[in-house]
Design goal:
Length: 273
């Protein structure tokens, strides 16, 4: 894989920014000296620099002026203030990538200028361990090369898909909130194991590995989950008895409702409802 030539900056150097920077360097997409960041917390900036080999910028405007790709990695409530600060440094030569939840491309264009090259990304927390499920949407001024570059960068922290921005709320409801739903599934499976006599640590390890293995089977085989389920459920056996209990408890409908509820809330928060 060829190393990228672009310098990549982060405005905000928290956990997600650090995870992205580390992943880019680990995948040998960039060298440490191609990374720089600024954060209102000097400690956060220092942790970023120590973890990635990148530089600490003296301010947000310095990041915007020096980097070819700028990740806006601040909390949503701070994004307007940050855009106002860096607006004088914005040029058509820089690609701005927002990972601020709920901040629409229209809002970014209003803050950074209608000619700004913009991409909005919805990451999720498994990005922190290189197993993210990300989606991104490009603004009208972003080029095909910009979209390809962001796909390549995000693939370093898991996988990424490009979608229409109107679907990002659904992505938030599914892969953004989804890890929390799966943690509850893992916890419940482990509780079931404990209920049947397994030690807590053993039950939790088995539950987590079972979920990981099942997910890998879906991704590796490309078979429909129903097909994989049927391969486990033999006639009159243990699995079909458990499936009957899951259906009686409404697991399927409850998970669908959870994604729908999280999607609606995302739309409300972003003002797109």
């Amino acid at each position: 894989m060829r190393m990228l030539q672009q310098r990549i900056g982060f405005i905000g150097a928290g956990q997600m920014a650090m995870a992205l920077g580390q992943a880019f360097a680990k995948a040998q997409l960039v060298a440490g000296n191609q990374l720089l960041a600024h954060d209102v917390s000097l400690q956060a900036a220092e942790r970023f620099a120590a973890a990635t080999g990148g530089a600490i910028a003296p301010g947000n405007s310095a990041v915007a002026a020096a980097a070819d790709v700028v990740f806006l990695a601040v909390k949503p409530q701070h994004i307007v203030e940050v855009m106002r600060e860096i607006r004088p440094a914005v040029t058509g030569n820089t690609l701005f990538v927002s990972i601020a939840a709920g901040i629409r491309l229209q809002t970014l264009a209003e803050g950074l200028g209608s000619d700004a090259r913009l991409i909005r990304v919805m990451p999720n927390t498994p990005c922190l361990i290189g197993q993210g499920a990300c989606a991104y949407s490009a603004g009208p001024k972003a080029t095909a090369a910009d979209r390809q570059l962001i796909g390549q960068l995000l693939d370093a922290v898991g996988m990424a898909v490009e979608i229409d921005e109107k679907l990002l709320d659904a992505v938030t409801g599914l892969s953004g909130s989804g890890p929390a739903f799966i943690y509850m599934v893992i916890e419940a499976l482990a509780d079931g194991g404990v209920r049947m006599g397994l030690p807590r640590s053993t039950a939790l390890t088995l539950a987590a590995q079972t979920v990981r293995g099942a997910a890998e089977m879906v991704l590796a085989s490309q078979d429909h989950p129903a097909v994989l389920k049927d391969r486990v459920a033999s006639p009159g056996g243990t699995t079909i008895a458990g499936i009957e209990a899951l259906e009686a408890g409404g697991l399927r409908a409850t998970l669908i409702a959870a994604v729908a509820a999280a999607t609606r809330r995302s739309a409300e928060l972003s003002g797109s409802a």
